[in-house]
Amino acid sequence: MDEILNLTENDLNAMTARELYKISQIVKLKNYSHYRKDELVKELYKQIQSLKQSSSNKRETAKEPTKETKTQTKRGTTEFQEQKTKEEKVEKQESLQEFLDTSKGTPETAYVRVDNEPQLYFKGLFEAHPDGYGFLRANYFPSFTDIYVSPPLIRKFGLRTGDVVSGPVQRPQKEGERYPALVNVDTINGIKVTGYLKRPIFENLTPYYPTERIILETPGCNIALRVIDLIAPLGKGQRGLIVSAPKAGKTTLMKEIAKSVVKNHPEIYLMILLIDERPEEVTDMKNSVAAEVVSSTFDQPPENHIRVVELALEKAKRLVEIGKDVMILLDGITRLTRAYNLLSSTSGKTLSGGLDPAAIRGPKKFLGAARSILNGGSLTILATALIDTGSKLDQVIYEEFKGTGNMEIVLDRELAEERIFPAIDIKKTGTRREELLYNEDEYRRILTLRKFIGSLEPGEALERLIEMLKQTRSNEELLRSIVPDER
Q1: Distance, CA of 6 to CA of 55 (rounded, Å)
Q2: Which of 243, 291, 396, 458 stands the most exposed, by the fewest C-beta atoms within 10 Å?
């Protein structure tokens, strides 16, 4: 609370609305959400000054001697002073704990009290500043509960944007300091460190075609997952697109894929990015999938959309650098490109639909990060792309990304309108170099299956495949029924 009472009106003006709301809650300012920012700053400053004056009066009253304290024995006075010292220590500790309370942040961020130590431990997402210092974020957005990281610490441990860092922190020590500071670094991305963490740079790692398959099929799973395993296999390091018209089931399909990955591949760190989505869909995804869900809803400015995606990508890169397998599900690349288009500095050229060519760089950099590392980890990215929305811009965005992926799942609007689910267009769906993901015997059987359904119309082919899947308990059983084992 002392830090808040020392805030000036200029300090309040420099804060974001989110930070002002947080302080308003702490100082118990009524109806703070009804004010405009300039009005809120004035009311908040008045409330802080009032609390400051009240606190000062209490201290003066406490200093006045009473008859009771005058008549205390020497022993009683000593006990009183000891108790007062203990209370002051607890008050100071609780003040810092309240200041660092980030329990509403991401699951990655938390603080814990350490017995017999005056410091608190903080775990957060590191973001470097161009001027050399950095912050540990409670979540993917700046807040006044962030932890300051000094340049010497950054250089000593080799911290990079996206690192999940933990260590002891201390409250501001000097006049004018606004943030608690990180004292030392204990872990970086779960690795215990005592000095500089040696690791490769993501961009210098050697990419290769995916060779390790991500199996989506589980007992009693959604038929869509079995179809994908047969028609467009997914590998670690895949760069895939789910191409879909509105209401064709792309979000539902993404949710099913996420559930399957969590169940079948616990070694994969799964991140789900929801950009420009409805808040209720974000809540539903968090409740449905045991993974890190990062969101920037449609009521947020485009700057937030871009910030969330770029910081999440940096976090994924840091994990891949230490040999981890990471998967990002993005919903969706179309809305992300629209956000870049709104904020991009004009290049003087405009593509069809009003798309600035410079706006494509950011999303392409994001998708291009997906890769399987030779003798290392992998970064798998599966993103949704919208088509048939009636917007020329959306179609142009899809055409720009059409050739960048090495795997594509196409959802057909006509099949969805006929209530045929999953509405996957079998002929347009596929994976490049898929033979690297199947064994020789399995691939031979799958080619036979595709030849069988390839001669049919898309709707008829899908219905026939769904019927065959319902008659068997697993894909292996289906393939063996089509091509019997050789004797």
Answers
A1: 12
A2: 396
User: For the domain 96-198, what is the CATH code?
Assistant: 2.40.50.140
Strand segments (E) across 301-441 = 325-331, 371-373, 378-386, 407-410, 430-431
* Extents of the domains making up the chain: 1-52, 96-198, 207-481
pLDDT tens readout for residues 340-373: 999 887 666 787 888 888 899 999 999 999 999 9
Share of the chain above pLDDT 70, in %: 84
The letter for the amino acid at 148 is: Y
Report the C-alpha dihedral over residues 165, 166, 167, 168, rounded to 10 degrees: 120
Binding site members for ATP? 235-240, 247-252, 278
CB-CB contact of 143 with 22 (8 Å): yes
3-state class (DSSP) for residue 308: helix
pLDDT in tens, 66-101: 444 444 444 555 555 555 555 555 444 444 455 444
Pairing mode of beta strands 191-192, 207-208: unpaired
Classify domain 207-481 at the CATH topology level: Rossmann fold (3.40.50)
Chain centre to alpha carbon of residue 264: 21
Crossing angle, helix 333-343 and helix 392-401, to 10 degrees? Answer: 110
DSSP three-state, residue 285: helix
Give the residue ranges of the annotated binding site.
Answer: 235-240, 247-252, 278
Inter-CA distances, 276 with 107, 206, 272, 330, Å: 22, 33, 13, 11
Nearest 10 degrees: CA dihedral of 24, 27, 30, 34? Answer: -10
- Are 210 and 238 in contact by the 8 Å Cβ rule? The answer is yes
Q: Is the CB of residue 135 less than 8 Å from the CB of residue 142?
A: yes
Taking the alpha carbons at both ends of the chain, their separation in whole angstroms is 79
